[in-house]
Structure formats: structure tokens, C-alpha cells
Amino acid sequence: MQKFFLIIFSVSIILLTSGNVHAQLVQIGAGGGLTSIVGPDFYTNSISDNGLGFSSGYNLGVIAKVGLPVVPITPRGIFLYNHFSNSEGGVDISQSISSLGLGIQYGFIPIPAGVDPYLFLDLMYNNFGEISGLGNGSGDGFSRFGLQLGVGTEITILPIINLDVFAGYNWYNLTGKEDGEDTVSAWVLDLFVMFSLL
């Protein structure tokens, strides 16, 4: 995990100190939204059906973007904290998934238009927190790599403030699985307020 943070930090420094820094637009934002678990059955089935009964939870996070001159590709870094909980038959279960990602977004429109749609792809490092409330030792935390793929749009409010709305599909544990481990996947729908720094 320390190597992953070091790589993200190094790439960020290189981007921010490159010769084109004056032509770049650096944005940072905060926001949140909904995360809806799609699968596997262990996550979506009810507690009485030997599952966790998670459906929708909330997420909070931050995003940083570095706009590059001329090209419609924007490097981005994202952190999302997802929280899920369920109460059924006197049993309370909860879990968090913390996701740290590095990726790119591709703008459809090459010039600023006030509403700028984009596609994005993020490589994610996901930390699954301990499942509280199980009481059987199967709730220990673990970490996996995954992907987030989606579509979004930036809406200009003021010259230095944008709203960033996006919907993405997450595969939280594509690599590093143990034998018999199913892929955990979810939809996210988020709204972030972005501030331009340069």
C-alpha cells in the first residue's frame, strides 16, 4: 500500500512541476453520493439468506485533476470512502470500502463549453474494512486492486468553480483474489464541487 501511495505522489509531483504547468488547469474537489452494490450474492442476499443484505450505501471523497494543454485527456486521482450497513432481525452489520485511484478522463468536446462530458477509467486500490456484526471471524479486512469505468460531465458555475457529476461502475477486487472469492461490484453516482487552483 505504501508503494501505491508513493507512485501516486510521484506522478502528481511530475505533472505539477512539468514545463507546461502554466498551461495546465489544476482542480481539486470534494463531494459524495450513492454506492449501490450489484454483487456477489453474499453481499446482496438478506441476512436470513446467509448474506449481508447490502443494497445502497453512501460515499464521500475527494478528486484532483490536472488539465493538459491541447489534448482532451485529463489525469486524475480520486479517493472514495464507501459505507454500507444493514439491520435485520436484531442483527446490525456494516462494512466500509476505502478506494484510492489513479486514472484518466477523456473529454468529448475539445473546447470549453460550459457543459463538458467525459469518459473515465481509474485503476483503484481498495481496502475492504472488517465486517462488523458477523461475530464469526469471516469479517476480517483485506485489500485488492480493481477498476472504475464511467461517464460524467463538468458544469461550469463560476470561472473557478465547477460541478462534476459522474456515474461509474466499480470492480473492487479484480486482482489478488483468494480461491473461491467472487468479484464485488457496484454502481456509484456522485456530485463533486471542483475548485480551480491554476
Biggest sheet features: 8 strands, antiparallel, barrel
- Count of discrete structural domains: 1
Number of helices: 2
- What's the shape? elongated
* Text of the CATH class: Mainly Beta
Number of strands: 8
Could you tell me how far the N terminus lies from the C terminus, measured between alpha carbons in angstroms?
Answer: 30 Å
Query: Which class best fits the helix and strand makeup?
Result: mainly beta
Strand order of the largest sheet: 1-2-3-4-5-6-7-8
The CATH topology name reads: Porin
What is the arithmetic mean of pLDDT?
85
Poorly predicted spans: 15-24
Radius of gyration: 18 Å
**Overall CATH architecture:** Beta Barrel
The H-and-E topology, N to C, reads as: HEHEEEEEEE
Task: Give the helix proportion (percent range).
Answer: under 10%
Which range does the strand content fall in?
A: over 45%
Topology:
Blueprint lengths: L1 H15 L8 E15 L1 H4 L11 E12 L5 E16 L2 E17 L7 E14 L13 E17 L2 E15 L9 E12 L2
What does this structure look like?
By secondary structure, this protein is mainly β. It has a single domain (about 1-195), classed as Porin (Beta Barrel), CATH 2.40.160.20. It has helices at about 1-15, 40-45; strands at about 25-40, 55-65, 75-90, 90-105, 115-130, 140-160, 160-175, 185-195. The chain is elongated.
Characteristic key phrases:
mainly beta; elongated; 8-stranded antiparallel barrel; 2 helices; 60% strand; 8 strands; 198 residues; Porin; single chain
Q: What's the short version?
A:
By secondary structure, this protein is mainly β. It contains two helices and eight strands.
